[in-house]
């Protein structure tokens, strides 16, 4: 805890840490300020560096670019590998764990150690990893790096500790799972095939042990060669040479037949009694043509052959469609008896897996579901019903239907908002799903989850543009309805969406459906020629007076009007989209009330909106772009203010403005929907940022260059526009052909002038030049007057200055507590009228002077820009504290958040650093180099919230949540769920005495005797390198980090030991019962046959 005291001398206009230049603390033009009496600010700061630590928490969404799939049939958990080296492990809804390989190599294959709490991953860098899933954060126990051969296929038999590994050279190696060391036992490709064969069989594409005899290993080579290898005799039992390449193999559970899928779209069924030719060859999707030939078909990439007691076997495969049917979607085919069902998928199939009742491959499989991993979705099909319905996916996989362009993160929402959103959203869900429970049901619940509540489509507000029409197509190349920015007030449930076509949609929430007509306002946010002011005119003739600045100027208001064109065909006063002008029926939920659109002016498209703020207590909405700022009264549906940035300054303009010639070219707007990881594109995207420090230029028509410029014209300058470039907007003369954009807006109770004695509603405006402008407002307090009397508003001329573009405002009281913005309590405008309880607006205000009798009037204003943070005292506008956040980079996102019952300023920089600063002293508390390289996706989606949390899109389909709170990091282990739960392994079915006697000696097969070092020797050290992991050590550290770590470990050990003893006791009892039954049957057989002669048998 540390006290900061600063004696404020109100006689001076700036403090020693003051802002740049005298205008930063200057008063309104020509308005003298009374010197406030000196007083002492006493703020006790409680946050210290020990309160902060940065770590990842959970990841939501669909794994980006998935590559592999695995399922544990006993634990009932699913694993998905990705191209970036990530592994997602899913269980029951709420169980979601993310792991990442340090190498970042693509995951080729996944293998669960069934019911053992472990997972083997094979990666593209030819490394095997063993993951420990018995801890809440899985970690690698062992790794094995192959040096001379490339891994192509792995197989781990159930309840075996020996992993078969096939390679690109055609060899098969064997790895001990416990020690993760290679066995000396190797099946070389030249021994597996006949010596007379002159060609290489190709890579190993399949390995599996025979259900009939575990000592027999079936090896499938890509060329079409299949070998059954006798592990004991170290020789081949049989060899099959087929003309078509093999993609997969699947056994019948009896071990007498197996099925292969081939590259020509055929399925071959082989019987072990005769391996010279296939028992059956089928082309499921290949029809016979008129000339008698079969249609050529695509490869069948995978097939699974599963048996059922009560019905015909299931043959399930992906691919195999004929080439003639172009444009058909990817399919999964289910052959059940004579019935063939083709399921079309929305995306290409990456992998699928049939879920069966038993983990034993020598028992009737009883399939009940199919998990289908698509490129952008996960689907589970119910096999127990004849129409094969899909299960409703309980995971938040589809976080979006199109690329994400922005995010907003809210913590501590009103408790009633989540249930009502869920109930409304649930009414719009699709029907026809399977009624059975989700089959992936393993693990225990985690406290950190993501639930899809509600979806809203903004395109329903507008008419569908006809082909060849639509002015938005000329403005943007992508979807004209793309969302650019959102603003939400959880208390009033008002929601605003800014679209890429320079439009804003305001929604209100209602639990009732309604017939409504959307009100449309059209704003001409463009400076006219008469508004151009030269430096000399600026000195003598302010563009507004104190009296006139409080009323809206009529020529800036443009109500809805039909579009028109000038005689020359130049577009003028027309919006980009057409709002529905008829009464529409809207369902319960968010219902559009108002649409604001910027207009084309003299053939120039409207500039994109760069900032937005809405305040439900005031009933006002403010937005800005590179031309200026506009304020809309959404209660009265009127435009209050529409003014250029220059007009906002008045006589307090700190810059010398130079007029320029008219613009030479017209540049269209580029969209936001394309997010790329390419660094060159990142640099070009950055040059289009609305906060890129562009300055203001005046022409005769007062139009300006778009901030979202054509990226191709910026290729040569992409290096200097990159994330790491150094930028400065501290210039005294503006002579470049650029504009000053409004980059941030904030409504709040503040002091618009130094002479103000009481706080009033104000709008704080921040620009790309680091300038802060204050606009006071006068709002009627009575509800009836508020709906009839106009709101008076006008700039005060108050100007504050920072380095670079302004990003964020926040207000603190004089004891350092955060002042929330006033809001209106939600009321349902569509609810039935109640004469006893008339609906009235209920406002909640947080005035700076409401609880500060001891501290006096005033408040602190926190302003953060791309380079700098400052704390001002209001109303004197004196700078108390200043901190230069970065010199070599710039801030992408800044928020004032509450952490540990206090507040701090959290910043995310373009160089990947995450920083926190104390308030109000701006002391650095944390600076972590979190992301080594940032891209535009992260830059646009990174956001902080209260409680030490933040999130961003780590990939186009995944949300990564992080915490910067030490307290949350300490409690994270308790918040995460368990992946592994102690479950007894199901017993194998009783095979019967005669079947077991004549069925071979599968149960007497001892792999240790064959593959152990004593029998097989050691493998060559140069073949593979063992790398010990940190999983065990990390697991101990994690368990010990909690307050009951030691007790937890002891309890788990006792539970596991008790479980093993219980299992042993049960098995002993079963053996005794079986022995007694066998003795009884043997005695009965002896009595029955005792008196018979030999010829009577």
Structure description:
The longest helix has 45 residues, at 1045-1089. Helix content is 12%, strand content 34%. It is elongated. Helix 13 (1031-1041) packs across helix 14 (1045-1089). The chain is built from 14 helices and 64 strands. Residues 1032-1092 form the V-SNARE coiled-coil homology domain. WD repeats lie at residues 239-280. It comes from Amphiprion ocellaris.
DSSP helix fraction: 10-25%
| Largest sheet: spatial strand order | 8-9-10-11-64
- Major sheet, described briefly? 5 strands, antiparallel
Strand-residue proportion: 25-35%
What is the averaged pLDDT score?
A: 79
Decide which structural class fits the backbone.
mainly beta
Uncertain ranges: 1-39, 529-563, 659-737, 850-855, 1033-1049
Radius of gyration: 36 Å
Give the total of beta strands: 64
Alpha plus pi helix count: 14
Shape descriptor reads elongated
Tell me the span between the first and last alpha carbons: 98 Å
